[in-house]
Amino acid sequence: MLQAILAAGIAVGATYALIGITYNLMFSASRVMSFTAGQLGMAGGVLGALFIGRMGFPVIPGMILALAGCAIIGLVTEFVAVRPVLGALDQHLYVLSTLGLALMIQQFTAIEWSTEPQPFPRLIGIGEGGPFDEKFWLPVVACAATVGGLEYLYRRTLVGRAFLAIAEDNFAARALGLPERNLRMASYALAGVVGGLAGFASGELLLAFFANGAMLNFLGFVPVALGGLGNNRGALIGGLALGLFQQAANFLVGGVFASVAVFTVFIVVLLVAPQGLFGAPPSRRV
Amino acid sequence: MTLSRRDFALTALAASGATSLGNPARAEAEPIRIGWLAALTGPLASPSIGFDRGVRWATDEINAKGGIHGRKIELVVRDTQGDPTKAVNATQEVISRFKVHAIWGPTNSGELLATSPIMARAKMPSLVAGVVNSLIDPVKYPNAFRVTPSNNQWDAAVRNYTINVVKAKKVAVVADATGYGTAAHDDSVAGFKKAGIEVAYSGTIDPAQPDVTPDLLRMKNAGAEAIVAWTVSTGLASRIMNARAELKWDVPIVGHPVMGSGDVGKLVTKPENWDKVYIVGYKSCSFDDEGKLPPRTQAFVDAVQGKIALNDTSLWWVVSGVDSIRLIAEAVEKTGSSDSDKIIGYWNTLKAWPGLYGTYSFTPEEHNGYQTDEIVMQKANSQHDGAFSLAPGYA
Asked: Would you state the CATH architecture of domain A2-249?
């Protein structure tokens, strides 16, 4: 019993964490909270089911195609919904533009794909439905690989350091001659890949369903708020905690009360630590 | 030839006479206009597409025989897209602009809740295919007659099967956390409690919840002997079945017809996860142990062979569409009039009218025309040609 709750909790938690990281990647490159993060997760699942399930591609090429599709959605987000409003960040126009694009992606998927959940193919075939079934550990593996990969990128590579420089101080980075626009676009493409990977790895759990986007948008935002905006490690811990707590609440109180419990804890945490559990309080020069 | 004043007067008189004589003839040939409000596109389109095939087949059949008293049936079709706002506009349009004589549809409860008061104000004879109980009220809506079962009737059929055939003493009642699911859940729980059955678990689940193992664990730990499921979400339905298999828990699942849809078949991880799932269905559209449909339904299926596709829809939607057109036509035929009060008056006296989908009876006090004993349970994984096999326990 405990095994089942742990397996499902960690799996959905890892998915939420990956969506949280997607939010962070887009935010650190542009200071924009892009609400297409959840839709990227949805698209990862749908494109995976399309390429592998319907069109019959082998798993690896199917995954590459699905993630490439999501990277393109990331680039489109940057070009359509972010770049035009960057000049007026303080007016928060990006809320409207990214939300609008997210809705367009969702409706397009509903019309062209299906309004009913569609099956996601078995990727490897390990585990027969028990707590060690691949549907539970694939998202965890994807999450670990992403976090490790991002740590490597940021700490060991020049491009990664350039990303950090842009995130830290946009103007100073530009003054040093860093190609800010290209780096921002690369960040959005990378966010597309990470978001797509979240949906692809959890496809067997979440199914290829157009409405997953809204759910992931919402629940993927919680780890960001819990862990502190821009803090990937915080998002990871926040996501896993959210997944475990959600599954435990499903078992203990069930149904709609579980959602109430999740958001009660979320609100309480934000009241106690408004900057997130792992975020540093903002310092202001006076 | 020159036209004298006398000739002109005579010709004019003859012409006016012919015109005035022609008027009654034209009135007689005025078509019987039926407003058919269908969600033909959008996420709720599947039932309406099925109904539509039956509606058009019945209309063509009647018109091919010369219509009713020489009057052809004319369908005024409007696609509501399942949207209550569009359904309201369509209702007003067919009533005010097209002056229809009766309305069939819209075919889902959300739209009907919005359109019923409009039809009642216009005293428009209407046939209802929504399950929500409050859609039928002979005082508020004396014009509305239900030709499909109500939620109460579905509920009773599921309850009777769970108690009398499955012989469960403790049940788990689960539903999706939508408006429909919550209402169906509450009715179902109240019904079981009233019948003296212990409800060991009751709850609603968000249809987007990725894993329902914890919920099924609660049901199992509570000692439930059957799961009664009310959901219109194929995702949730299949997750319940998959979680049941993963827990190696061998209890039957009894409930909503959506659990028999082809989408669920695609979402269960193994075909056997779909076994021991029983859904609400209709005697008229069920295969017996020998794989045969009731004779009346079989005759229809034979007649439409090659003319209507039945393999991608539910047979009951199609035959219900046929019955509805025939019910309107019958009222006009028997009363010789398409006036609304005549049609409503006739339907109020209908006793055991043998349709394809069911046998309908109405009285001025009871506008739920479908008979509860015609609702049966079917095996969810047995669909072929739009119909299902009877669940175990029916002689």
From this structure: Orthogonal Bundle (1.10)
